[in-house]
Amino acid sequence: MFNKNILFLDPGGSELKGILINEHNCKIIIKESVENSGIFNGYINNAEIFANSFQLLLNKIKEKTKKPVHKIYLIIGGICIEHKFLNFTYKNLNKTISHDILNLITEKIIENEKKQNNIVIKINDIEYNVDNVILENPAGLFAQNVTFKKIISYSNFNLINNLFKMIEKHNIEIEEVYPSIFCSAELMLTEDERILGAMVLDIGAHKIEWGYYFKNKLINCGSIPFSMDHITYKIAKILKTDIKQAFHIKHENIYATLEADNFCNWINYTSNNINEHIIESELIKLINPELENLVKQINIVSSQFSKHLNLIALSGQGALLKRIQKLLQKNLNINIKISQSADPKFDALNGAILFYINHDRQKKDNLFKRIINIVKNHL
């Protein structure tokens, strides 16, 4: 019987976030976060900050729950991950496609990425074309020619390796690594929505990740260079304050303002060194160009799938900017679904728990463990 506790850990954005669950019943024990993950631009910019933040997170969890952490499921997203297509063909194969052949292909993909100092996080099969017949699983079939279409999600090897080293110092095992876009889709999209055609947009601190699902499969994914941090920097510049103050202003005022049907006329913010009145026109001038630019970029991406696109779902803290919903509906003429989470910064983690329950809890083959072993054997 399971009796261990799993910490789902998200180091993305400006905070290190975690949700602890019981492995036996999958019930949430606690949600917790600490400021400053130490990760910047896809690298551990400050290892000491990450180590201290991780220690602080563990201490807060232990203090509040009196429970240990046995395993970690790591969520990687934003600027820490990339995705790309692989489309390759075996000609004149003239043999049965065995599981050994499929495993050999996986190992070749992993090896090729390792040469570029990348580590594969997930390999997502799109389709197999076996002698001009489209199939989901070709194992056991005799084939002359076969084309494989896959999406691989990968991260910088040094980032993952450093995360492993710092986490394993606490004698905690990293069991699995999830790309955040899969987690967001699990949380935001129903099976019917994924079958009919839908996009999920995870609006994070550093960039937006998007994934397009059709026939219940991830067909395409990528990112949009829109940064919630950019809005923070603008606030800091306008109010002549530091980034930390601007971050709190954004969370306490900007989100709440944009949720209303009409902008508040005045927002008061008082701190040790700020006593400002931010009028409506200033907020509009600040936010509007950013949102209009975002809508244009989303329109460019979504137009690729307009034939089978029935819904766009928004997750992450940026989903709180409900004016995005109105602009998207107006410009794209499509249904928009917004995260209903009490705290959207935990969206990816909530989705990761659902993904674990729905797909990984009973699985016997852990691809990520195989990937780690292959990479370590070649170091």
Description:
The protein has 379 residues and is of the alpha+beta class. Among the domains are: 5-79 and 158-182 and 348-370, ATPase, nucleotide binding domain (Nucleotidyltransferase, domain 5), CATH 3.30.420.40; 81-152, 2-Layer Sandwich (Dna Ligase, domain 1), CATH 3.30.1490.110. 40% of the residues lie in helices and 31% in strands. The protein contains eleven helices and 20 strands. The longest helix has 23 residues, at 280-302.
Please name the defining characteristics of this protein.
alpha+beta; five-stranded mixed sheet; 379 residues; Nucleotidyltransferase, domain 5; Dna Ligase, domain 1
Question: What's a concise summary of this model?
Answer:
With 379 residues, the protein is an alpha+beta fold. The chain is built from 11 helices and 20 strands. Helix content is 40%, strand content 31%.
